[in-house]
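Recap from last week: sequence in, structure out.
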Amino acid sequence: MKLDFSSLEATALRPKNFGKALPEQFMSENASGLANASFALPAVTDLDRFQRQTVDLVQPSHGTTTLGFIYKGGVIIAVDSRASMGPYISSQTVKKVIEINPHLLGTMAGGAADCQFWQRNLGMQTRLYELNNKKRISVAGASKLLANTLFSYRGMGLSMGTMIGGWDESGPSLYYVDSEAQRIKGERFSVGSGSLFAYGVMDQGYSWDMTDEEARELGRKAIYHATFRDAYSGGTVSVYHVTQDGWTKVSGDDVGELHYHYYPAE
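Predicted structure tokens:
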């Protein structure tokens, strides 16, 4: 028995007029139809005001706590791991530190997808810089690349409040960059819904001459107390330390266990 496969051939699936010019009447009719096409608009008197209010209504409610500070021994980055949308907690194990390169770290606050995508994109840009210039990019340069990228997308719905920290030829550096392309250099930053609580602990215990252990404990303690007071922060407290030799993850502690560390049961 011989099977007929002619119906599966590419030529059998082509229209009869394939490869021929379409009639002018067909082209003119469709062109005029596209030119006159219109879309129904909302039945409101002030369309611009309606659009602004709609954007405000669909803005998601994010929750997180991240912090970073520099001192004589390097850069400390500490974050929680809870992902939430308003009262809904979607995950307790989100990795909010993006490892851009061996000497550069970024943090996530705002939209998780936005932060992850554009900071990984930044990792690609920094690698291309290294290949082209035969040297590692500075923290200032990396933060400027991210700010330039985000400037191109202002007003398009991105939600990002990130920190870029690392060690370069000038020593430890820390920058804040957000989705409005704002870029600020500083010694201490905290971003997220629990940032005010973290700032209270961090500002009280901060000193440029801290030891490494004191600096790591300060970052851990500040994030823990933020998770204790802020319902939208929680999970685990991850602490990273960046030195001239690169970054290392120092610890990742569950906030429930840290509670009994700072407040032992009697």
